[in-house]
Amino acid sequence: MAEPLLDARGLWKTYGQVEALRGAGFTVYPGEVVALIGDNGAGKSTLVKTLVGAVSPDEGEILLDGRPVTFAGPRDAQRLGIETVYQDLALAADLDAAANLFLGRERVRPGLLGAFGVLDKRGMREHSVAAFAELGVELKDIDAPVATLSGGQRQSVAIARSVAWASRVVFMDEPTAALGVLQRGRVLDLIRRVRDRGVSTVLISHNMPEVLAVADRVEVLRLGRRVARFRAADTTLDELVAAMTGALATEDEEEA
Amino acid sequence: MAEPLLDARGLWKTYGQVEALRGAGFTVYPGEVVALIGDNGAGKSTLVKTLVGAVSPDEGEILLDGRPVTFAGPRDAQRLGIETVYQDLALAADLDAAANLFLGRERVRPGLLGAFGVLDKRGMREHSVAAFAELGVELKDIDAPVATLSGGQRQSVAIARSVAWASRVVFMDEPTAALGVLQRGRVLDLIRRVRDRGVSTVLISHNMPEVLAVADRVEVLRLGRRVARFRAADTTLDELVAAMTGALATEDEEEA
Amino acid sequence: AGCGSSGGSGGSANGKSITFVAGNTGDPFYITMKCGAQAEASKLGEKFNATGSAEWNVPEQVSAVTSVTANRPAGVLISPVDPNSLQGPIRTLQSNGTKVAIVDTTLTDGSIGITRISSNNLQGGQKAADTMAQLVNGTGEVVVLTPDLTTTTTNARIQGFKQELSSKYPGLKIDDVRQVGDTAQGAASAVGDELSAHPGLVGIFTANSQTGEGVGTGLKNSGKQGSIKVVSFDAGPQQVAALKGGAVDALISQDPYGIGQQAVDQLVNALTKKPVNANIQTDLASITRDNVSDPSVARFLYKSDCSS
Amino acid sequence: MSAGPTSVPRGAALLWQRARGQNTLWTFLVLLVLVAVFSALRPDAFATTFEFKSIAVESAILVVLAVGQTFVIVTSGIDLSVGSVLIFSGVVAVRTMNGLDSSPNPGIGVVLAGGAAGLLAGLLWGIFNGIWVAKAKVPPLIVTLGTLGIALGLAQILTHGVDVGNVPSSLANSVGSGSVLGIPWLTVVAVLVVALAALALNTTRFGRYTRAVGSNEEAAARVGIRVDRHLIKVYALSGLLSGLAGVLNLAHYSSTTLTSGAQDNLNAIAAVVLGGTSLFGGVGTVIGTVIGVFIPAVLQSGFTILQVQSFWQTVAVGAVLILAVYFDQLRRRRRSNR
Amino acid sequence: MSAGPTSVPRGAALLWQRARGQNTLWTFLVLLVLVAVFSALRPDAFATTFEFKSIAVESAILVVLAVGQTFVIVTSGIDLSVGSVLIFSGVVAVRTMNGLDSSPNPGIGVVLAGGAAGLLAGLLWGIFNGIWVAKAKVPPLIVTLGTLGIALGLAQILTHGVDVGNVPSSLANSVGSGSVLGIPWLTVVAVLVVALAALALNTTRFGRYTRAVGSNEEAAARVGIRVDRHLIKVYALSGLLSGLAGVLNLAHYSSTTLTSGAQDNLNAIAAVVLGGTSLFGGVGTVIGTVIGVFIPAVLQSGFTILQVQSFWQTVAVGAVLILAVYFDQLRRRRRSNR
Ligand SMILES: Nc1ncnc2c1ncn2[C@@H]1O[C@H](COP(=O)(O)OP(=O)(O)OP(=O)(O)O)[C@@H](O)[C@H]1O
Ligand SMILES: Nc1ncnc2c1ncn2[C@@H]1O[C@H](COP(=O)(O)OP(=O)(O)OP(=O)(O)O)[C@@H](O)[C@H]1O
Ligand SMILES: O[C@@H]1[C@H](O)[C@H](O)OC[C@H]1O
Ligand SMILES: [Mg+2]
Ligand SMILES: [Mg+2]
Questions:
Q1: Which residues belong to any copy of the ABC transporter domain (chains A, B) (predicted)?
Q2: What number is the ipTM of this complex?
């Protein structure tokens, strides 16, 4: 296999008395879809947050293209082309969908106005309508604050945002959890299209059929540690469940 | 079929310019599991909220045991044995899991202390540990505020709470969306056990295999209206999807 | 309540309106001044009303003056809370045709107003120092409590107090001049701390009526009533009660009623083109338990409403 | 730690629990250090029973106000009206006493009636606040800023803006400046209020609902807690305690102190937050609030005793406020999140 | 309405958008009604250019403060220090002028230098606040309550508590009380500040980040907005405007008005909230804030002109505050949620 795009080793993260990560590792290869699965509380969300700079690990190292990196914040990761859909979505509830899609990357008007930071609201809104349509999401009122959207609509906003800006890896923490059947299909299509564009996707999901349908590889986290890796084509649902519940351990993470 | 336990007709609900419910109806029979399905934004969560008194509909009527009822708030519905797991969970983030489980129904100490409202914290905690164990959820720190729990752990707290107090109907709005494979199985088991206790369950879910596995009946909502009803045993996944997307309409709601 | 009342009969009556702008509407000193002005106005047949803010506050008084200006009264007597800030608004008031009498406190520009009427505050401070020296036999530490250091009158009193001590009573030392705000509570709270800070304390001088009201309470709360000598400027009802009760030993009192009367007289003179006295100093009295009941000092005791 | 048998996490949990209980630890240390420093610098003046007593007495009224404020802030509300309600209640109390018997020393019955009238006045203002907040859904800051003006204005109208000083001497000499068994009355009252309030917040249903409402009002309503009624109760409690503070204030200063009290609200809020209660609601302790009252009080007294110019006190209190909360935050962050 | 072609929702959306833009409509009506009533009662005194001008002038300083406060509150923060920073900046400005040239009428250069020093002083306090809020994560209420004390104390120390009245007459007569083309300087400055601020909040990236941070700080940080820097900028803006207000105050009152300004912070906050800005952040308008300043100002002036006892003004302002926000809430609730 190729050189890993992103390789994390020996990550530890403790919250008070709770050890969320206990020497976890994780690998992403270029242009693949890799699923990260595990029981509730296994540490998946925490792991993702450490990999995208939203949380700093207590210990451990992250290699990007083989070189160690440290992220002071999500901004650092984004600059390197890494985007994230968080499990709790993290939208600005008082802003509308378009404003959220462009948040932190606003388009400004040309010329002098732009120099003063005057926004190109219209351009951004038009672009947003198109982006949401691609995901099969119809917003009845594009100017409504996202606080008033349905659960699935909100999730779509977060997904559209991450995909729009990622150039290397997109992390999606249970992106389809609240989606309808149609929208779920669109997101899985989107993930495949993103991969074809050469961008890797990390998909966290509790839906095993979905995982097996879209992922190239699967990594399994249990009690804060990576316990197994599979090629999706070579594994079965039962094997995945066994790994998650501890009935089967194909590898045990090196101690940090 | 028996007399409906709960029967709603012609419900309308408008938010600003958005019509979330447009004459929706919904029926629950005693001791059944009924799934409520529909696309994102179809109005499922809004419908549930009107049925449990969390939102008051602009129009329409709700019959309980054939008699019209109006709920001034969730308290009224709860008094009649109706409990809810909300899609956004609605937990008090600063309180621990046990406090959330008993919220609004605290046990007090016996005697004079109880008369002053002094809580039986220990008794409530012990009961909670048992209730969570039944759901296969392990809380590493039972005294931690629920704000620090993982997504699935929080969902389990909400489920345990509703099941503990329901005597007639439990509404669960996407209760398994964030759950792991193991926990999802436990919740489905729990739903069946609750039904065997004679309590009806309304399950909202976007996971069709899950719906078909556990539901006795399925009602489909589309654009704020009930468009179809099925006996789960007599239907197929494709038929459900067709109904949700509007490709198939078995019934069209009476205008309100 | 508190607004216009008019006479209607009396001498040169032509029903002109006169407005009083107090520095602090709740201070017995200004209430008494209002009573004097009101009585005189009604005697002369002029309309009278009073305004001002409940607190010693520059912007509030400025906006009060502005609103008064909109009403275009014939005459205004005002006690400016700040020597500079009020100059502009009062000039505007004058240029709109209103005659102005400056009472009690003063402005930096001494040419504003048709007349300036107040006690000789410097002398009052000296009087306070003499009284204090007598009470404590000329030796020990004293502290001064004052609302702030931005008011012309209280500053003059402190200056007089200091001058007199340094020139006549070398045994008396000022340990602290403390700003406690123009409230009784502020003064009361400060007393306890001052007692702890200065174990050798023998006397307290308070520079106006609000601080004077608080000091008695403060001493009572710390159980030092009587053992610390107190000389207090002004003679509000609570101060007089404290004097009679033994918490305070002497009051240096002004004649606010007279200030109010004379200010109205001068305004009416100006309005009727009679000669005006440009500067007037009113009397001060030193009140102790011995003379507090004398009829001669009665006019130096302040009121908290005009009917008493 | 492993996710093994429940006994292991239970032990750890207890430890954590205990640590969380010590949210107020740091601020308490600040208080101790201040006392130690001032005592060392001026043992003769500061480290004396007289001075400790006078700090305790001068703080008692603010403690009573701040305890009520604690409950309000735990619901994620705020009560800016406490200072005005204090003054209004004092006016009502003294007016009642004078109305029943205008002699300088009326009987105990009259004094009690006046005190009760003051408490009632406070309670009614609290209910008024609560109704606007809970039923009319006007933000608490606005409601209580409005009440601040209304109550103060009415107090001034009732008195024509002139302090009423005609306070019965039996009241002034007992509750106002007297002692029981050597402990000042004001301190006794404050300690009682603190003890009852701490129990109520920590161990009762009332306290739990207060936290729940502050944590997530929507969630509390959905489990059937009558959020509106509970909020009214909490504001009523704050009003009642402001009324009590008003009666104490009247007794202590023998005056209605009409023009004071403008800063009482901010002082009470500062004490609550200094004591570790979150302005976002859901979390807070009564004991912390008490410490939060004493830090500025000790600074104030200590500086006066050291004869530092009073302006420096203002500066120092401000600086300590920021620093104490900062170190407390640091410690908490280190202990848990991120 | 159907979920048909996008054109239909677009039209509706525009309508809704417009309605939302009118959040401040109700409060504006209240203002109009007040003006109408007072004008009808005393057309000779109230409905005059003189009176309107005076209200505009007397409100100008508060407008400048409240505009800064609006940005802070939209980030879900609060700035209690504005009144103290105002005074501190005035002191720095006049001290600078006097230091450079102590004659009563120094040259324009000296006046400008003093003004700049005042602005700078305000800006520095704002940055100070911002750093403690954004970097040290101390709650804004605490930071700015601390700064309130520190800035005021230092201003008093700088002046020994004595108002500096030595304000150059060129400043006092121009900016302080002069006019350009018949419009008072103070009003001109306030209008400029309002216009720029409204544009910044509504149309620029700076404004959008301000709302985003107030809406969900975590979310803003996760999309890469430098929340800490942005917060520092917002508090710096509030400080800068307080500094400007300080210079205007100095010019207008020819004095440093050391003992005033204690209520400036609450007045500014009341104006912001009266203007429809949410204390929970994320939502707000500058124009609303301006209306929020004028309602109490009009009440105040109207009552004085009607010779209503000043205490009733306090009551009325409080009552209008609650009622105006109440009706605004009602209207909004009817329009959207639940
Ligand atoms: N901010 C926090 N403070 C304290 N504990 C935390 C925090 N975040 C996570 N934890 C704990 O760390 C553990 C792992 O949490 P995490 O959210 O990473 O799990 P997860 O694998 O994403 O679970 P799920 O599938 O339920 O989303 C949990 O026990 C959780 O309670
Ligand atoms: N409080 C609200 N204010 C404004 N609009 C709302 C509100 N709640 C819901 N809506 C709108 O009503 C419609 C139905 O929302 P609802 O949450 O009921 O959908 P849902 O069927 O539960 O969708 P999902 O499967 O995504 O959870 C959506 O268009 C949503 O934007
Ligand atoms: O003379 C006045 C009087 O003493 C008052 O009490 O305070 C202010 C003084 O100007
Ligand atoms: Mg997770
Ligand atoms: Mg939903």
A1: 6-248
A2: 0.83
